[in-house]
Amino acid sequence: MLIFFLFIPFLIIAQNSQDLFYSFPASSSILGQDSLKLWIHIPENYPSSGGGLMLGLHGLGEPNNSNEIRTFLTPTSDNYELLLVCPEPYLSQENPTQIAKSKAVITETIDSILVWYSIDKQKIYICGYSAGSDVSAHYTLENPKHHIKGFIWFAPGFYGSLLYSNIDTSQANPIPPICLCHGTNDFVSQTSATRIENVFKNSSAPFLKINPHGIGHTMNYPNLSHDISTCMNFFLNVDNTSNQKSKNSTLQVYPNPFSNKIYLEAHNIYSYQVEIYNLMGKLVHYEIINTNFSKIDLEKLESGIYILVIKNEKIIYQIEKLNKE
């Protein structure tokens, strides 16, 4: 019976967009006799090989089940040609056993999908909502088995701030880019989101915060797909700039954090462009430098995190995360 199940996805992948449901016995010992339940969406144009994967984990609000979060995330799946898989998590976070079970569900889900489909292991994303976002954070931030390219921390639950107020952001496995999203009227997530932001905005991990205006503790609002797309574009932009970065960096940038000015000291580079972006991807400063030592006045920028790109027409020399106090 299991063998027949394993072969089904290979037959489906070449067909049109489909919504599927699978339930089968879990193999992880910690899950005991429980079944692994997966709600899946396959985009119409999903590639036969090298495609990406998004996991969606629901919470206790809206959505409160895996079928519903699949519906909410289907436009993102279609737009970015990602296989969407929504497993059923364990959401009682005050119980360490339930936390371990949820992490096992995510691990086994990804393991299974990698067997059934030809997934690019460098294109795995996780989007978690409410208590499901905290479950996702446990997996993503605690040395996961699989590399996560981007984590959408949507409307963090009550335990998010308690779990990660003291997290080691310099752990051996790099923390993936994080997109924290919660509505301005989401009073459930407000405290957790503030504490999470304080932890990660000064870490080495790329971090983006989105605050949909007037939205409460829900994913059910008209601009959801737009906000999720902002997160996805942020992940892709971080990835693209990292891939282009020169391995032989010959510039020093200081001080960082800074108040009003930064200084650039270059070695063997006498002409380059300076571009500074905010975390929404907007260019906020541009300058051409024709000397090996320069001072850049950034007094007009608001306090916060920025991305500095130093480049010429052919190569990106350096990318720095700047923190203006």
Summary of the model, kept short:
With 325 residues, the chain is an alpha/beta fold.
Structure overview:
By secondary structure, the chain is an alpha/beta fold. The chain folds into two domains: 2-244, 3-Layer(aba) Sandwich (Rossmann fold), CATH 3.40.50; 251-324, Immunoglobulin-like, CATH 2.60.40.3080. The chain has helices at 2-12, 66-79, 96-116, 131-141, 160-164, 190-200, 224-244; strands spanning 18-25, 35-42, 51-57, 82-87, 119-130, 150-156, 178-181, 207-210, 251-254, 261-266, 272-278, 283-289, 293-297, 304-311, 316-324. The protein has an eight-stranded mixed sheet, with helices on both faces. Helix 2 (66-79) crosses helix 7 and helix 3 (96-116) crosses helix 4 (131-141). The protein is elongated.
Features:
325 residues, alpha/beta, Rossmann fold, Immunoglobulin-like, 8-stranded mixed sheet, 4-stranded antiparallel sheet, 15 strands, 29% helix, elongated, disordered N terminus
Q: Strand fraction band?
A: 25-35%
User: How many β-strand runs?
Assistant: 15
The computed structural class is alpha/beta
Domain count: 2
What is the chain-wise order of helices and strands? HEEEHEHEHEHEHEHEEEEEEE
Please give the radius of gyration in angstroms: 21 Å
CATH fourth-tier homologous superfamily of the largest domain: Alpha/Beta hydrolase fold, catalytic domain
Low-confidence stretches: 1-14, 241-249
From the N-terminal CA to the C-terminal CA, the straight-line distance is 60 Å
Given the structure, what is the number of helices?
7
Assign the CATH topology of the largest domain: Rossmann fold
What is the helix content? Answer: 25-40%
Q: What's the CATH architecture of the largest domain? A: 3-Layer(aba) Sandwich
